Amino acid sequence: MLVDNAGEPEPEPPLRLHLAVGVSRGERMDFVIQKAVELGVASVRPLFTERSVVRLDAARLERRHEHWHGVLVAACEQSGRRRLPWLHPVEQLADWLPTIAGTALLLDPGADRSLATLPEPDGAATLLVGPEGGLAADERGRAVQAGFLPVRLGPRILRTETAPLAALAAMQVLWGDLR
Questions:
Q1: 3-class DSSP state for residue 165?
Q2: What is the rounded CA–CA span in Å between residue 167 and residue 104?
Q3: What does the pLDDT look like over 74-130, one tens digit per residue?
């Protein structure tokens, strides 16, 4: 979907980034969505995980999703993006993992390899990041079985709202719009 009255057509990015992120509390999720849009993601997929502390009934979940969509649109307008990223419905991590294809990266501070050691993805990449406290060990194991490659950013453990943004920025520098 294109944003109205935004000017010249937005060029196609060299790398389509997809962010799958564990639902976090309050403004943290808003912040991640806003900044991920500014960093050029093609889609955001909110996920419920074992450590997701946010629990919403169907009506509240629908309102929260509408709110996140508004955050996404406002971020597009503010940053001059003309192509609206897709905001997927919230789903369970376990239900989503079997559907993944292509380059899939799992942000894991205990991983042996860093983003800088990886070959350039072929056109698109999905980044999976956990909520507060990260993904549980069995979730990380299931992600690896589904084809995710664990990667770390460096020696520090970053907060849930910082980690995906640092990784997206690094990916954009290595392979995308910011090189």
A1: helix
A2: 13
A3: 999 999 898 899 999 999 999 999 999 889 999 999 999 999 999 999 999 999 999
Distance CA 55, CA 23 (A): 9
Whose CA is closest to 179, among 113, 103, 120? 120
Top CATH class, 16-175: alpha beta
DSSP class of 83:
B
Domain definitions of the chain by residue range: 16-175
- Cβ-count burial of 7 within 10 angstroms (0-12 exposed, 13-18 middle, 19+ buried)? exposed
Residues 6+ apart with CB under 8 A from 62: none
Which ranges in the chain belong to alpha helices (H)? 26-38, 58-79, 93-96, 137-145, 163-175
